[in-house]
């Protein structure tokens, strides 16, 4: 006990003189206690106290170790004395019981071997059941208590096994989920490069589309301004233009015979009076055709409105 509380290997102490320490800044009582404790510890093992340097730190640490060692040694002495006293009491009681057993003829030497064996078994059972008498009721109570504890332990064991099964199932599912997540992560990592390439392509296409959008908006504004300059209105739709083109074709068909007739007049001998009449007639027909075309256009515009 004193070796344990003595504080470590004395050879680890730095060597210097241990003869007359410098008392400047030291507590003389602590130094005396430390020297006395070191001397007692090394004398107990037949060795001399090694040289070391007396410093405030070393003296303080050694004084703490010495105080703790002395306290533990004193406690150990008290416990040892108590155990010795109890052993003496047990020996005295055993001697008294032996005398009583011998006086009634129940000494261990005079008993049969089977009785001695039974007594040893009974003593072991009593120690196992933690009872101090041989009454049947005490044995029954102890056995019942042991049975109850066994039942409680079995119940706890069943619960623990059930919980272990549940935890094992959770662990199995967690491992399966972890495997699935690892596989998914591996697939995602494999898809990173193609996706990044596709994203770069999309970024390039997006930049091109934005450029085209700005160009188309610019052209749209230009064409809109141009239509405004030429007087385009939403009423002049494609259907109206198609209808006007059809009317134009009809008028061209109607005026074509007149133009052919006028061209045929160019082959006649010049007669100023007849030519003037013919020209006037054709002018009237042409004017009527233009008026008809204008009326058709006006009616088409009015119907679209």
TrEMBL record:
InterPro entries in alphabetical order: HAUS1
Primary localization: cytoplasm
Key words of the record: Cell cycle, Cell division, Coiled coil, Cytoplasm, Cytoskeleton, Microtubule, Mitosis
Protein's cellular compartments: Cytoplasm, Cytoskeleton, Spindle
GO biological process: cell division; spindle assembly
Region named Disordered: 1-20
Name of the protein in question: HAUS augmin-like complex subunit 1
């Amino acid at each position: 006990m004193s070796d344990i509380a003595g504080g470590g290997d004395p050879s680890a102490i730095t060597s210097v003189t241990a003869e007359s320490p410098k008392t400047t800044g030291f507590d003389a009582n602590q130094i005396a206690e430390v020297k006395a404790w070191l001397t007692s510890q090394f004398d107990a093992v037949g060795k001399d106290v090694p040289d070391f340097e007396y410093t405030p730190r070393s003296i303080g640490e050694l004084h703490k170790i010495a105080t703790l060692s002395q306290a533990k040694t004193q406690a150990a002495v008290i416990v040892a004395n108590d155990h010795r006293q109890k052993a003496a009491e047990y020996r005295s009681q055993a001697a008294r019981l032996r005398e009583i057993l011998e006086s009634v003829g129940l000494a261990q030497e005079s008993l049969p071997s089977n009785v001695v064996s039974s007594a040893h078994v009974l003593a072991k059972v009593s120690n196992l059941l933690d009872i101090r008498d041989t009454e049947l009721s005490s044995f029954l109570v102890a056995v019942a208590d042991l049975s109850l504890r066994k039942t409680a332990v079995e119940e706890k064991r069943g619960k623990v096994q059930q919980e272990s099964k549940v935890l094992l199932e959770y662990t199995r599912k967690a491992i399966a989920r972890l495997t699935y997540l690892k596989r998914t992560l591996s697939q995602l990592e494999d898809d990173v490069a193609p996706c990044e390439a596709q994203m770069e392509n999309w970024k390039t296409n997006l930049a091109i589309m934005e450029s085209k959008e700005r160009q188309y908006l610019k052209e749209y504004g230009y064409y809109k301004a141009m239509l405004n300059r030429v007087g385009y209105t939403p009423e002049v739709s494609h259907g109206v233009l198609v209808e006007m083109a059809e009317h134009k074709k009809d008028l061209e068909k109607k005026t074509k015979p007149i133009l052919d007739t006028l061209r045929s007049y160019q082959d006649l001998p010049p007669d100023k009076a007849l030519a003037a009449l013919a020209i006037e007639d054709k002018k009237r027909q042409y004017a009527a055709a233009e008026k008809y075309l204008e009326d058709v256009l006006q009616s088409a515009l009015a119907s679209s409105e």
